[in-house]
Amino acid sequence: MDKHLHFKKIDSEAMKGGQHLVDNFMKVITETYTGFNAIGISTASQVNSEEGTILYANENFSGYTGMNVKALFENNFGVTVQVGYKTSG
Quick one: which of 73, 60, 69, 75 has its CA closest to 27? Predict the structure, then answer.
């Protein structure tokens, strides 16, 4: 099986809020990638990885707490999505 992994790091512009963050990432994916069958998202917030929801995000990510990132991306792109917590380092 041929596996291709592509990684892209972008400025989150988190101070513009959670919805802007999600919209920005969706735009980058749409403009940059084609033919993918899964999305992995690493985020600097407390995450329920099974559900893909943001349990807590500080004031730097207004409106991000409670957002179901997994469902938003799965519904938009029709692929499997995994959301996890980015640890420092």
Answer: 73
Q: How far apart are CA 71 and CA 77, in angstroms?
A: 10
Stated length of the chain: 89
Give which of 41, 5, 47, 46 is closest to 24, Cα–Cα.
Answer: 41
Residue (of 74, 30, 21, 32) closest to 52 by Cα position: 74
Q: Convert the pLDDT of each residue in 18-49 to its tens digit.
A: 999 999 989 988 988 888 899 988 888 899 99
Contacts of 43 (CB under 8 A, 6+ apart): 54, 69, 83, 84, 85, 86
Query: The whole model's pTM is what?
Result: 0.82
